[in-house]
C-alpha cells in the first residue's frame, strides 16, 4: 500500500472511495491491519477500556497514548497514525499544543480531540504550528458523565443543528478530518455532505466518507458485549488477516455498516 497522507484522504472523499480505519495499540496488530488493507490507524484512548479494563476513557494519560503510539509506529513507517489527546489534556491552546507535540514526536501523523466550536483556538494554534487535527463529535466518550451514559447523540433537531454547526466550526478552525460517533445516519450524511474534509463514522451509518471500529469489537473480544454498531468479522472468516480483509472489503463496498448496525 502506498503511503497515506491527508491529501490521499481528501482525494478519497472526492472520488467517493471509502476510507478504512481501525484502532490499534501495538506494533503487531498495526502491521497486520496495514498489510491487510487498513488505511488509517487510531491509537485511541479506548485503550483505557479495552487494554486497561476501565469503565470509561477518563484515566488515560498522555504518556500512555505516547507509549502506544511509539509501539504502533514501530509496526510500520508507512502507517497513517492518528493519536488521541486524552481527557483534560487540551483545556487550553498551550496544553493542547504541548501534549499533541509529545504524540507527534512519538510517531503520530494527526491528533484527535473531542468537542465542538469551543476548540477553535486550540485547533488553530495546533495547525498553525504544524500539527494536523482530527475532530470528534457525537458520543464523545470523554463526556460520558455529562451525557449520563454511553448514549446516542444528535436525535433532537436542536442537537443535530448544533452538531452540524460545530462540525463547520472545526473545519473552519483547520481540522482536516472528523470522527462522528453514535449519531443517526441521516445526520452523519448531512454533516458529510456539508463539509469539505472527510468524515469517519462509528455507529453513524454508511454514508460517512470512512469507517472505524475498535479492534477488539472487530474480533468479538471486547469485555462484556458487542455494540449494536459493530460486527464480529472473525466469526465469519476464521482467521485474523481474513477478518481484517473482509472488514475493509465491506467498508469499501458500503456493505458495512448495514441497516442493522445503524441508528435512525
Ligand atoms: O478511542 C477510540 O477508539 C476512538 C474511536 C472509537 C473513534 O476514539
Ligand atoms: Na477516543
TrEMBL record:
Which family, according to the similarity comment? Belongs to the PanB family.
From the UniProt record, give one GO term of the biological process aspect.
pantothenate biosynthetic process
Please provide the record's keywords in A-Z order.
Answer: Cytoplasm, Magnesium, Metal-binding, Pantothenate biosynthesis, Transferase
Q: Which cofactor does it need?
A: Mg(2+)
Q: How is the cofactor bound?
A: Binds 1 Mg(2+) ion per subunit.
What species does this protein belong to? Pseudoalteromonas lipolytica
General function of this protein: Catalyzes the reversible reaction in which hydroxymethyl group from 5,10-methylenetetrahydrofolate is transferred onto alpha-ketoisovalerate to form ketopantoate.
> Can you name this protein?
3-methyl-2-oxobutanoate hydroxymethyltransferase
> What's the encoding gene here?
panB
Question: Organism classification, top ranks?
Answer: Bacteria, Pseudomonadati, Pseudomonadota, Gammaproteobacteria, Alteromonadales
This protein's pathway reads: Cofactor biosynthesis; (R)-pantothenate biosynthesis; (R)-pantoate from 3-methyl-2-oxobutanoate: step 1/2
Enzyme class comes to transferase
Q: Name one Pfam family in it.
A: Pantoate_transf
Amino acid at each position: 500500500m502506498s503511503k497515506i497522507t491527508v491529501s490521499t484522504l481528501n482525494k478519497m472523499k472526492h472520488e467517493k472511495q471509502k476510507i478504512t480505519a481501525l484502532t490499534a495499540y501495538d506494533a503487531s496488530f498495526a502491521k497486520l491491519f496495514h498489510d491487510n488493507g487498513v488505511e488509517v490507524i487510531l491509537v485511541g484512548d479506548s485503550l483505557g477500556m479495552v487494554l486497561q479494563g476501565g469503565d470509561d476513557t477518563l484515566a488515560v494519560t498522555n504518556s500512555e497514548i505516547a507509549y502506544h503510539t511509539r509501539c504502533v509506529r514501530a509496526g510500520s513507517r508507512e502507517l497513517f497514525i492518528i493519536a488521541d489527546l486524552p481527557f483534560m489534556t487540551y483545556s487550553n491552546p498551550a496544553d493542547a499544543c504541548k501534549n499533541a507535540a509529545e504524540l507527534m514526536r512519538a510517531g503520530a501523523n494527526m491528533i484527535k480531540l473531542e468537542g465542538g466550536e469551543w476548540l477553535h483556538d486550540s485547533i488553530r494554534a495546533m495547525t498553525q504550528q504544524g500539527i494536523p487535527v482530527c475532530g470528534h463529535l457525537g458520543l464523545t466518550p470523554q463526556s460520558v458523565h455529562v451525557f449520563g451514559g454511553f448514549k446516542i447523540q444528535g436525535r433532537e433537531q436542536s442537537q443535530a443543528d448544533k452538531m452540524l454547526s460545530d462540525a463547520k466550526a472545526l473545519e473552519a478552525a483547520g481540522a482536516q478530518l472528523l470522527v462522528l460517533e453514535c449519531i443517526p445516519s441521516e445526520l452523519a450524511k448531512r454533516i458529510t455532505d456539508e463539509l469539505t474534509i472527510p468524515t469517519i463514522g462509528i455507529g453513524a451509518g454508511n454514508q460517512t466518507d470512512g469507517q472505524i471500529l475498535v479492534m477488539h469489537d472487530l474480533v468479538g473480544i471486547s469485555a462484556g458485549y458487542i455494540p449494536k454498531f459493530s460486527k464480529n468479522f472473525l466469526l465469519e472468516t476464521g482467521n485474523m488477516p481474513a477478518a481484517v480483509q473482509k472488514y475493509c472489503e465491506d467498508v469499501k463496498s458500503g456493505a458495512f455498516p448495514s441497516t442493522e448496525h445503524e441508528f435512525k
